[in-house]
What does this fold into?
Amino acid sequence: MSITSKITILIIIVILVIAGIWGWYSTSQTSQTNITANSQQNTQTNANTEPEYNTSDAALDDDLSSIDTQMQDLNKDSNNIDQSFN
Amino acid sequence: MKNLLITCLILAIFMVLPLGCSVSAQATGTSGILQNKEVPADVLVIIKNADKEIDQRIENLNDLITRIGLMKKISAEEQKTLILSIQNEINQLASLKTKIDSDVDLQTAKADYQSITKSYRIYALIFPQISIMAASDRVMTIVNSMNIIGSKIQLRISALDGNSAAAMNQILSDFTAKISDASTQANMAINEVSLLEPDQGDKTKMKANATALKDAKEKIKSAISSLIEARKDLGTIVRNLKEINGLKN
It folds into this structure.
């Protein structure tokens, strides 16, 4: 085999290796982008998800209980206002 | 190997030495200064009382910073501004404390003690101002929660027959008016106090600030009354809904 043929084969091998690496790299990048996009989409979906819109008696009781807790905190805030004026 | 150990030992000593000096300096602190001076007993009493009063104010101001961090309806920018003004007040009080701690003269100590209340009037503004804003923020949060329950109840009522629905809608309408009033009062209270500035000795400004704070306080009280009434309405509607549900089942 002539030297020219050997060099040609070597160049082809190098090109194939480079193409392989480039192909693998771009595939992994695309995959990574998809994962990130999916992850962001999931996060956004979770953030936008409203709490369960339950109108049952039990759910309304829970809601009232939560309001009462907040009203108690408001009472403390009101006492703080009174103290701050002394 | 031996040389290496000796070098490490020397290095360690040089590293630890300044630390030891620092700790020793801190340990002497205020009491060290006082011990080195001949401080009359009456001055020491004033210093003790002043320290106690300043510490209490700083503690209250730090509590306000924590409360601001919990606000949900006040913008991050407004929160930052409020926290900065409080932090500034804390720093000034800490400086005053340092000065009072070094007083040896009775007249100076008395004047410094009086300045806690006289010169630091900003405290008299900040404390009620933030307390009102915190309460307003809470009112708005409760209004938000009540609105959600209101829409749930509306759904339940829409499934009832004509007569039952009419009675319920009347209470719901009253409930809606109450939370709307609470929201209006809270918003007005926030607008009234959020832009108040320290009077810096200006008596006209001091009077205007006091009037605004008092008025905002009344608005919060009114908002709270409306919320209490709205809560009663909610209780009545939910109770009625349960009864109707029970009759159906």
The mean pLDDT of chain B is 84.
